[in-house]
Design brief:
Blueprint (H helix, E strand, L loop, with lengths): L2 H12 L3 E4 L7 H15 L5 E5 H7 L1 H14 L4 E7 L3 H14 L3 E4 L5 H15 L2 E7 L5 H5 L2 E2 L7 E2 H11 L4 E4 L4 H11 L5 E3 L9 H7 L3 E4 L1 H4 L4 H11 L2
Parallel strand pairs: 1-2, 1-10, 2-3, 3-4, 4-5, 5-8, 8-9, 9-10
Antiparallel strand pairs: 6-7
Helix pairs in contact: 2-4, 3-4, 5-6, 8-9, 9-10
Amino acid sequence: MSFEARIRKASETSKSRIVLALDPEDPDREKLMQRSINILEKASEYICALKINRQLVLSLGLRNGVDSIVQLAHELSIPTIMDAKLNDVGHTNEFMARSYMDTGFDAIIASPVVGWEGGMDSVFKLATARGKALIMLTYMSNPGAEIFYSMKSARHGEAPRAVFELFTELAAEWKAHGLIVGATKPEIIRRVRELAGPRMAIYSPGIGPQGGDPKRAIEAGADYLIVGRAIYGAADPADAAKRIRELTG
């Protein structure tokens, strides 16, 4: 079953569009591992996927660390996303992607800024061979993102347009499996949806502390909401996830 089919199935089962961004911190490795497992278990009923960023990988390691969390997610029928933001030359991107895939991740987030040849080409080839998904970073959720992502750029012979629009176009050409667009910018979500069409999934981070509104993001065209601190930082992660799920209808 493809990643897209798995996350749709998980979403239908949990009646949720929430991707849990599991990014807690603790200097004690064992406490961090147990806390991460507890949060995932408690929130699992109300989420449709799990996303892990590099801070948890650096704290726990891939082997005998994050791989255990990925395995637990799969046992709970929850697909997993590695937020690697791959953004290097091809052979380095390929090495990192292979390491994450070997750990069990079903999808990887990458940046299109490095282009295709010698950048993303090897990663897409690997993902296709492994049956994994690649999600392209299109517009981040932090306030400072606007400076770069809204800059005008153009390929040779074409009219200039916003960088995020070019990234959306490239993701479609490369047959990516989804797009990251910050929930803090509903108008950008709406524009990306217009450009990408109805079939490309949009994942929107920035819900809660960064000011993103779940309902507005969904109404603008987001398919899934990436939620971290609003859930794992809550006294009751399950209740927090449930309340956010209810906001999305």
